């Protein structure tokens, strides 16, 4: 199936229910046709990208985290209004049951490899969305315990308030929910967060929320030596159009024919090793797609972090990578969509590993 946008990966999905979570947030529930169930299978913590109509640009693309878990029949995303944000306000104001939207398949690496460990999930505001998906997946399909720390302005801004209460009551032995309300406790600060988080250090930790909040949390965890192993999700507004199908990238005109094939690069995907040719001036994602290697991707602009990989060996040139933190880059993380081949004069073998 090819949609009007020309991307063979996207599908037009029908919204079957809209749930009002708070005055500022709504959940959109999609029905997935049987023929597309495999395409839209997902892991807890992932997101989908939605095409939103625009009078000025024709459309914009926005990523929204999945709030359902894979064990549920339908796929839900939750959208919170952003002050001055076109996409979130359009979805909240215009989508009703029966609305059809063009959606790309689930993406993202903010997801546990196993559901059987213990988890510390820390979120603020709409950052709860992927954390709820992980929580429900662990409780329904895993054996681990979950501590969920959730910060909000006040009680009425708590997204999924009733659902969280029901989950906590139904899973008393495995789920602990800790609420932080700024109206009662003030702004979350590392000096007050550190003792609250201390008993849970050692659990696999996932963090999602506004940047200032996440920075305070990371500083609090650092006091216990636990800041380096935190999985962080960053919300971004895509500037490009991921719904446009990519064409194979020709070698730059300035590159002699003798060098057009580029250099050999070893790429490990799902434990399987591929040897590909990477032309000078081209990005790694294009090289992989040109040779038929199936890797995750979405935005093409270094914004969403979907095509994240690890540089195991060698040197590369990476452009702007909004989808990565400075710490992640220092540890060797790259985004394939903005990483170019190095100069051929460097003889170092290049090895890249995808999750």
From TrEMBL:
SUPFAM superfamilies: 2Fe-2S ferredoxin-like, Ferredoxin reductase-like, C-terminal NADP-linked domain, Riboflavin synthase domain-like. CDD domains: fer2, PA_degradation_oxidoreductase_like. Keywords: 2Fe-2S, FAD, Flavoprotein, Iron, Iron-sulfur, Metal-binding, Oxidoreductase. Residues 263-355 form the 2Fe-2S ferredoxin-type domain. Its cofactor is FAD. Pfam families: FAD_binding_6, Fer2, NAD_binding_1. InterPro entries: 2Fe-2S_ferredoxin-like_sf (IPR036010), 2Fe-2S_ferredoxin-type (IPR001041), 2Fe2S_fd_BS (IPR006058), Beta-grasp_dom_sf (IPR012675), Cbr1-like_FAD-bd_dom (IPR008333), FAD-bd_FR_type (IPR017927), Flavoprot_Pyr_Nucl_cyt_Rdtase (IPR001709), FNR_nucleotide-bd (IPR039261). Residues 239-259 are annotated as: Disordered. One of its GO terms (molecular function) is 2 iron, 2 sulfur cluster binding. Residues 8-113 form the FAD-binding FR-type domain. The keyword Plastid does not apply. PANTHER family: 1,2-PHENYLACETYL-COA EPOXIDASE, SUBUNIT E (PTHR47354:SF8), NADH OXIDOREDUCTASE HCR (PTHR47354). This is Flavodoxin reductase family protein.
